[in-house]
């Protein structure tokens, strides 16, 4: 992550834009003419295959850069970013961003962040192959809880905008399996669920599920 000071400077380099829930923030295949600095909301990153299949890649939240890889390489975007909740992001032109990075010597910082994301992706793929469903589900919810800034009281976090199909993509299982997993988490008192709403009621209980492999 960039320092708070650099992040504030970065945000001053572009113009803020509001994205509606479910809107496409960056489209796969489009040129890297600009990037986004996400300041509010939660987004998902997915890759769409020619046959229509969708592969979940990551969740992103405030403090994350979106689309910087295509900006650096001058290549079309290899993934799509979709707003799961209403999002606000600073839009910055590619050349202005590259100049900002050069002037402040941020290349190594961004490389470290890219390496961190790569390791995160590798860890997720390993989870999909080795961990039980409810453990993967608990870990996915904890990742979202770390990104969200919507507290539901002193002991919980409210996650909105996420469908069961998207949870299934993020955990590599069927929608029916997600329903079963959420039922187990509800029975333990870790979460409550509604239509596109999951309230984490007991973070310690959810962490226990996440570490129960």
């Amino acid at each position: 992550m960039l320092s708070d000071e650099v992040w504030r400077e970065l945000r001053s380099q572009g113009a803020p834009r509001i994205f509606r829930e479910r809107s496409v923030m960056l489209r796969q295949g489009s040129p890297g003419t600009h990037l986004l600095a996400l300041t509010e909301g939660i987004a998902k990153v997915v890759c769409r295959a020619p046959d229509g299949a969708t592969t979940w890649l990551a969740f992103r939240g405030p403090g994350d850069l979106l689309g910087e890889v295509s900006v650096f390489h001058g290549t079309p975007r290899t993934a799509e970013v979709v707003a799961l909740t209403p999002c606000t992001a600073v839009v910055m032109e590619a050349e202005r961003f590259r100049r900002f990075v050069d002037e402040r010597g941020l290349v190594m910082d961004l490389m470290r962040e890219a390496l961190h994301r790569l390791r995160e992706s590798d860890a997720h793929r390993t989870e999909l192959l080795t961990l039980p469903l409810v453990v993967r589900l608990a870990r996915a919810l904890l990742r979202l809880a770390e990104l969200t800034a919507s507290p539901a009281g002193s002991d919980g976090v409210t996650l909105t905008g996420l469908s069961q199909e998207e949870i299934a993509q993020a955990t590599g299982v069927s929608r029916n399996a997600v329903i079963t997993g959420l039922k187990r988490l509800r029975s333990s008192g870790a979460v409550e669920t509604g239509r596109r709403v999951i309230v984490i009621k007991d973070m310690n209980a959810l962490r226990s599920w996440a570490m129960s492999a």
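The first strand starts at residue 15 and ends at 19. Confidence is low (pLDDT under 50) at residues 150-154.
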